[in-house]
């Protein structure tokens, strides 16, 4: 039987070639009546336009949610969402939370014990008793 | 009232989606590898690479050497603008004969690894690895490219490039120590060992050679010491992917026979890097002194 070529697809490696930000959308919910939304309202009028100009790749939605606390909601490329309630926060604190959402990946918070994660095979190869120096008895 | 006009204003500036092959969920649909050429990379990705400044490299370079501030060279139009490395020494690099002979063989072998040091902590990396640093790196945004210039080893399957061992700080006597008789008035003689302070001009070649050139590896002297390769030998770049937090952990603090228990919450953040490139330069490239890439 003639040799069949293996069908392979290119493995996606975000960052190795081009980098794509994982946060694709941010929702801002505010309220005109609630006192807890005062900082959020100030953030939306003063700070948000500059943030939007600096990050053209993130979709931003601003909508009122009357009678509720102000909320930030981020949607990620892996389909996950992350919501942060920003009640009674100042605009600078809200910007910190927005940066947190932007730099996130949508993955669940996990404690990683090993710092390096690799999908590559070992460069020097796995040890074998039949190769190398051999045993000296 | 904010909603409609503001929403329209924000959405108007939205750019079209990047081509299909760059989207991560659609990346498996192609069998051809697309390198980011000038025509293919959409503008936001070029802008994020240009965000890098030379200040970030100064943090990484060796602290003992004087930092030579090299201006960012304008790269050819096909690649995004990347800052030039700050080299550890201004003197031309001297390659030993073994390096000259074996470096092409090291380069020719397929995969390479590098033991890169970030704040003196070693990480064994290959291209495409994800590194979670044990700290939160300030003043970096996702998409920034960092140049890792401190490495102790670069290797492939059969060859390894190592730096020569660091000069040992010997506490015992050196070759220039002399034993002198202290001037005392009484009958008890007192000897002391004196290391004459070397004047800048009259330093004998043998003493400097003994102090700076160490034999290859002496375990009890070299313990805990790492020597780094010259950063002109290799290129290692990493992208900042983002910031990850650990789950909230609570530490309860109390003492014996004390009913009050205090809870302290911790939730640290860690910067994630992805290794973009691990490449060893050729002998001609190193000796040519070409600092571009």
Overall helicity of chain B: 10-25%
Write down the Rg of chain B. Answer: 27 Å
Q: How many alpha or pi helices of chain B?
A: 7
How much is the radius of gyration of chain A in Å?
A: 24 Å
Give me the side-by-side strand order of the main sheet of chain B.
2-1-5-6
Low-confidence stretches of chain B: 26-85, 202-215
Bulk shape of chain B: flat
Question: Count of helical segments of chain A?
Answer: 3
Number of strands of chain A: 5
Of all protein chain pairs, which has the greatest interface, and how many residues does each chain bring to it? Answer: A-B, 52 and 64 residues
Mean pLDDT of chain A: 92
Q: Can you put this structure into words, describing what you see?
A:
The complex is a heterodimer of chains A (137) and B (293). Chain A is α+β, with helices and mostly antiparallel strands and 137 residues long. Chain A has helices at 38-46, 48-54, 91-103; strands at residues 23-30, 59-64, 71-76, 81-85, 116-117. In chain A, α1 crosses α3 (91-103). Chain B is of the alpha+beta class and 293 residues long. Helix content of chain B is 18%, strand content 23%. Chain B has helices spanning 3-12, 43-50, 55-60, 97-108, 205-212, 219-222, 283-287, and strands spanning 113-118, 121-125, 130-132, 145-147, 151-155, 160-162, 178-181, 191-194, 234-245, 249-253, 262-266, 269-280. At the A-B interface, α1, α2, β2, α3 and β5 of A face α1, α2, β2, β3 and β9 of B.
């Amino acid at each position: 039987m003639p040799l069949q070529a293996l069908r392979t697809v290119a493995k996606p490696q975000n960052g190795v070639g081009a980098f794509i930000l994982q946060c694709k959308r941010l929702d801002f919910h505010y309220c005109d009546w609630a006192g807890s939304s005062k900082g959020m309202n100030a953030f939306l009028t003063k700070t948000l336009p500059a943030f939007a100009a600096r990050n053209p790749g993130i979709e931003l939605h601003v909508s009122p949610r009357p009678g509720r606390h102000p909320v930030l909601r981020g949607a990620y490329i892996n389909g996950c969402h992350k919501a942060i309630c920003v009640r009674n926060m100042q605009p600078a604190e809200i910007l910190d939370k927005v940066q947190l959402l932007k730099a996130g990946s949508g993955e669940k918070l996990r404690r990683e014990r090993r710092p390096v994660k690799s999908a590559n095979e070992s460069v020097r190869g796995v040890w074998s008793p039949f190769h190398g120096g051999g045993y000296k008895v | 009232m904010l909603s409609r006009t503001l929403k329209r204003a924000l959405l108007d500036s939205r750019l079209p989606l990047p081509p299909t092959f760059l989207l991560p969920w659609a990346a498996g649909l192609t069998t051809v590898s697309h390198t980011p050429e000038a025509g293919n990379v959409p503008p936001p990705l070029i802008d994020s690479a240009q965000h890098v400044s030379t200040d970030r490299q100064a943090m990484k370079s060796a602290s003992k050497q004087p930092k030579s501030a090299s201006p960012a060279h304008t790269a050819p139009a096909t690649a995004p603008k990347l800052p030039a490395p700050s080299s550890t020494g201004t003197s031309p690099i001297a390659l030993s004969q073994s390096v000259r002979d074996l470096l092409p063989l090291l380069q020719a072998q397929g995969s390479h690894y590098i033991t890169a040091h970030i704040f003196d902590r070693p990480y064994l990396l290959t291209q495409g690895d994800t590194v979670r640093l044990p700290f939160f790196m300030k003043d970096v945004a996702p998409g920034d490219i960092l140049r890792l210039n401190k490495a102790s080893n670069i290797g492939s399957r059969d060859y390894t490039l190592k730096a020569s061992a660091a000069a040992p700080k010997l506490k015992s006597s050196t070759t220039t120590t002399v034993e002198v008789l202290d001037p005392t008035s009484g009958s008890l003689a007192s000897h002391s060992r004196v290391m004459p302070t070397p004047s800048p001009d009259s330093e004998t070649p043998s003493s400097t050679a003994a102090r700076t050139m160490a034999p290859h590896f002496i375990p009890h002297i070299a313990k805990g010491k790492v020597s780094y390769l010259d950063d002109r030998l290799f290129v290692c770049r990493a992208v900042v992917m983002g910031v990850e937090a650990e789950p909230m952990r609570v530490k309860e603090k109390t003492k014996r026979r004390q009913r009050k228990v205090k809870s302290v919450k911790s939730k640290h953040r860690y910067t994630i890097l992805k290794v973009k490139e691990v490449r060893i330069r050729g002998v001609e490239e190193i000796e040519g002194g070409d600092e571009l890439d």
